[in-house]
Amino acid sequence: MTLEPGTGPASQPALHRALGLSDDELDAIVARLGRRPNDLELAMFSVMWSEHCSYKSSKPLLRTLPTHGAGVVAGPGENAGVVSIGEGLAVAFKIESHNHPSAVEPYQGAATGVGGILRDIFAMGARPVAVLDALRFGDPTDTRTRHLVDGVVRGVGGYGNCVGVPTVGGELVFDRSYAGNPLVNVMAIGILEERHLTRAAAPGPGNLVILFGSATGRDGIGGASVLASATFADDDPSKRPSVQVGDPFAEKLLIEASLELIEAGLVEGLQDLGAAGITCGVSETADRAGTGIEVDLDAIPRREPDMAPFEVMISESQERMVAIVRPERYVEVAAICGRWGLARAVIGRVTADGDVTVMSEGRELARIPARALTSEAIVHDRLAAPPERRRQAPAPGAPIEAGALLPERGMDPGAVLLALLGSPNLASRRPVFEQYDSTVQANSVVRPGHGAAIVRIDGGGAGQPPRTPTRALVAATDGNAAIGAFDPWLGAAMSVAEATRNVSITGARPLGVTNCLNFGDPTKPDAFWQLQEAVRGLGDACRALGVPVTGGNVSLFNEAPGSRILPTPEIGVVGLLDDVERRAGPAFRADGDTVLLVGRATPGLGGSEYATLAGLAPEDGAPAIDLDLEARLQAFVRDAIARGLVASAQDVSSGGLGVALAEAAIWSGRGAILRLHVASSPAVDLFGESPSRIVLSARPDDVPALIGLAEAADLPVELLGTVGGERLVIELAGTGATGAAEERGSRVADSVDVAVRDLRHAWDGGLDRALGWRDAGSAAGYAGAGNAGAGAG
């Protein structure tokens, strides 16, 4: 495919299709221009009207989300959401995807995903302080999956470690639906003084447009914008353009120079260059300000010879920023860029005509109204229809009937617990996060892998003395795709509930939600229905829990030949902890503390890790969620922690109550002797993943007040037992423990009785075994793993 720079109509009749535009979209372009576009203009439209840049399928849905809330100073439409945290400071945060580039070239795809989201943060005037990565892959025993995991993890670590921003948390999930299309979602968080909040706008006709950072090359042409707007097909190499190449050391210089320019008051607007490159940078900033920009193509620094105009305009070369600067401040801007060793060039001027104009050697190569590329880009009214047949299994390929992978009724539930702890989705993530620098900047309070991330806030705004007590930001990501396979509304609502709950159980107040909506081909009615229902669930949950949606990303066309990913709404939440020393953690704190369960298990093993391993009975569905109950639960636990009544807090989620208790024991090195009332069946009560449940431990003297607080919030609360010893013992009591029904697990009456060291052994080695990263020994058998083998070393 060759594109000509001429100003006449597009040189190839079917060029628009080769660029990913439909016939209807070409007609819409002609209507907006009042003429046919030339090749360069068509290339610019193709990237700006891609799903990644225009949200042409999802925009009507996203408008339904709650975006206003206390402290929100920048919301959707900006580079990142920004929420005030008091004392002159604000937090900027956002999550984005780099799924398709990572499937093509996992190291660079993941690395540039980190670089891109960091630029979104410091473009707002915030210093990046944390990164979280939410990763999803296919079967961990598959050779390609192992290649992708290795490359993506190295890419995230390689970029984040070098740029000096800690990777403090995230997720790693395996499911066969991601085999052909992995998900690489990266969240970044930054802190800024509110007075330095910077917008991506180009005000003031006559102001200079300055490009600074790396030179422009051919890497990444059509990368994020085109790759994220079509499905992968083995026979279509045009959907596999070159992936961007990152340079974290250049990014570090870019961070420091950009923040210095902002603090010196030298920029009128600032925009990072990512998807769609310079075309996106100039058109979005101009449209937001109601202005135009004239681009001098010849002034753009290039690192490759003979680049065509369209290549220069849509290149996605990394580590580049566009600043809008008053002419009289140029010398100061150039001096700062020079001090940081960054190239800079005046590549254009702000105009009053509202057009993006591209000039070369005094000749006009393109002229497009900025709004036609951005705010007035085409929006599609997609058809949504639920699938005719809803599958029952929690993941493609999972058994529908009970299998032999886990002990069934009449057998030891301790062996079930060990098997779950050692499974790929529940085992320790240490082999991954030990490749990341989680402590750089010296503000990380907890290491990854032990609940929500916590990052100290240094001091206050300008003129503010260091604050006592020390505040902190708390962050978590969650995405319940397995539940979304049953019901996309429920999957999204439970994702929001779990992410906010993980923040709340530290004692922090959730400030806002950022989302990355990973779905299939929106032109297929059932795929668009999944997206539509997930957005509805996202909105309903955020309204019920009182958290605004501050921004995010939509990643569509996540399909490979013959497969589609599970509907995956990845949710990021940031919260504020007023006193980091009063935080609660998930590990048991002291022998003799009382263990309580707040909330109650509800039926439904669908979507659980237990069902993934053991199979799903035909009558099993997904558990339900009561959003009002969830809101009361989270308010209760924040209040209880603030009152000093809580020694530890752990939410019940993946793996159910059994895994939650095991993790609290593993992370503390303390056992517990507990008695659980089984109302349904041991499988449901121990390993079901129904939401709105929290395990608390407390000093015995604080228990009456804690129970009173729960009852005042109309929350069910159950005394489970006492922390202490070297074994986790859970005695199963109640009608469900010894019932005569024939359902799987209903007759299990044995207690869980496992040494904490055995729990840790199963948990520590599971991921290594699954990925084959080192010889971790064969997986432990079930026989003797519980009571009979309790004394094993």
Predict the CATH topology of the largest domain: 60s Ribosomal Protein L30, Chain: A
Summarize the amount of helix as a percent range.
25-40%
Considering the protein shown, what is the CATH homologous superfamily of the largest domain?
PurM-like, N-terminal domain
Level-1 CATH class name of the largest domain: Alpha Beta
Radius of gyration: 27 Å
Which percent range describes the beta-strand content? 15-25%
- Cα shape: globular
Number of helices: 25
Q: Provide the residue-averaged pLDDT.
A: 89
* CATH architectural name of the largest domain: 2-Layer Sandwich
Number of domains: 3
Q: Total number of β-strand segments?
A: 27
How would you write the strand order of the largest sheet?
8-10-7-11-9-12-13
Outline the secondary-structure elements:
Elements: H1 15-18, H2 23-33, H3 39-48, H4 51-54, H5 59-62, E1 72-74, E2 81-86, E3 89-97, H6 99-104, H7 106-122, E4 127-137, H8 143-163, E5 167-174, E6 183-193, E7 208-213, H9 223-227, H10 248-263, E8 269-272, H11 277-289, E9 292-296, H12 309-314, E10 320-325, H13 330-339, E11 343-351, E12 355-360, E13 363-369, H14 370-373, H15 413-421, H16 430-433, E14 453-456, E15 472-478, H17 481-486, H18 488-504, E16 509-518, H19 525-545, E17 549-555, E18 559-560, E19 563-564, E20 568-577, E21 594-598, H20 609-614, H21 627-642, E22 648-651, H22 656-668, E23 672-677, H23 682-687, E24 694-698, H24 703-712, E25 717-723, E26 727-733, E27 752-755, H25 756-771
Parallel strand pairs: 4-5, 9-12, 16-17, 23-26
Antiparallel strand pairs: 1-2, 2-3, 3-6, 4-6, 7-10, 7-11, 8-10, 9-11, 12-13, 14-15, 15-20, 16-20, 18-19, 21-24, 21-25, 22-24, 23-25, 26-27
